[in-house]
Amino acid sequence: MSQIVDITSKLNGSVEEKKLSINDFKNIVLTDYRIAQESRQASLTGRKEVLTGKAKFGIFGDGKELAQIAMAKAFKKGDWRSGYYRDQTFMLATGQLTLEQFFAQLYANPDVALEPHSAGRQMNAHFATRLINEDGSWKNQKEQYNTSADMSPTAGQMPRLLGLAYASKVYRNDKNLAGKTEFSVNGNEVAFGTIGDASTSEGLFWETMNAATVLQVPLAMSVWDDGYGISVEKKYQTAKQSISTALRGFERDDDNDGLLIYNVRGWDYAALCEAYEKGVAICREQHIPVLFHIEELTQPQGHSTSGSHERYKSKDRLAFEQEYDCIAQFKKWITENAIATIEELDAIEAEAKETVKQARRKAWDDFLAPVKKQVAEAAALLSDIANTSEHKAVIDSIKTNLVALPDPARHNVIQALKKALQTVRAESNPAIDKAKAYLKNRTQEGAALYNTFVHSDSPLSPLKLKAIKPEYEADAKLVDGREVLRDNYDKILGTIPEFLIFGEDAGKIGGVNQTLEGMQAKYGEQRVGDTGIREATIVGHKNRHGTAWFAPRGRDSVFRLFTLRGANP
Fold it and tell me: 548-550 and 559-563 as β-strands: parallel, antiparallel, unpaired?
């Protein structure tokens, strides 16, 4: 058992700090195994749901379970994630996702109570944290795990990741923000990024890693490397076939700031836990960016439900993926270290299958319940129309076809009613009027379900602010426009501590058009500062969920003004 005690030092805090008993340690490991199995079963079941027609498309995180569980151990309340569509295990491990919500999103359930991440509006495996209350006020982000909304464009999450990390640096260094207690604890929050290895070829990735290294911000970047970008091997994707090797020039040394690089195999549970614990602790405490290159991952079901990986992977590669599947290796490690028996692990796997089965069934039933109710209501209306119409046979046929649908959708109800009303367009009676009213109500309901959440509708929505027209004194002095802008910025900087200005040439020289003349000298480099020519990450700077303004764009300068989280609009 001494081997197990040594290994526990690699798991979420040392034995001495956590005072773990052997039973405590066993419970941690088996809980992780259960999460991994539930996530894997969700992926397998999700694929079946797509292939049987219950969902339109599926993309999953199978093969990445162990690394994401290790990452979750280092993730604390107040931290942020900016990732992509492979992170379901991490979301499950941190409690930001339930299995029912996973399937609700797969089915595109528009009910925000059942699918709180996007109300069915995004592709599956796209997650987000609710950041504001119903009244428009901010939630206390220190007391929750925070995830910025995922996006599908490869590397699109990267500029925003920099902004999230940079905000922690600002909160740590600007004492005027110490009172913003709902957003930060002395800048101790880490921004966690995730990306597939192939997507590191995107310019946004390189720009962000360069900016993070220059700025020295608490950014923890995980690259999930399974050897392919869809069907294209990484020898065609990445210099030297290794993103960590390619980034060695960014690495920290005794003479220069830089980032820390960890290379870990995605099936090595103990090494993963140790790397994330150590790396994120340094990132959090010292604000040094960290890259976790997680190699030898697998993708058991291929890239997505749109194709089969057997078409492009060799037999040797497929054999490797079967042997070094992270869950298979985790199971082997557990038994070799006498943490649990094969029988115990098989029981956990069986329970995971049943848990996922029940979650899928509940999510599907919840998704269908309101639709089935509409089908029943529409069927009754169609019966009433048929009983008073000369086109009874046609209306009865429409009703029969609607009721016979095994898995109806809302549009089936709309189509059936429209077809029936078109058939009886020359007739007039109360049953037809009732059906028309019902159809109008369903159309309005559909608009509420699918066309909302584009903009905030809280009392604090910018769309509800009243315009304040400018007023001029009769003897107002005529000055250059740049002076008006400069004095306006001066007023804002002096009254809103969250307000920052940064961009190319915005600091030292005050902008090429002098609209920021003297502002850096008055408010300091952090409030009014220069950046390199990295325009995507300049835009990304403004993120951490504040109110954004955009300054005028000069001939050869770009600068962005923004307030960090919690600013008054």
Answer: antiparallel
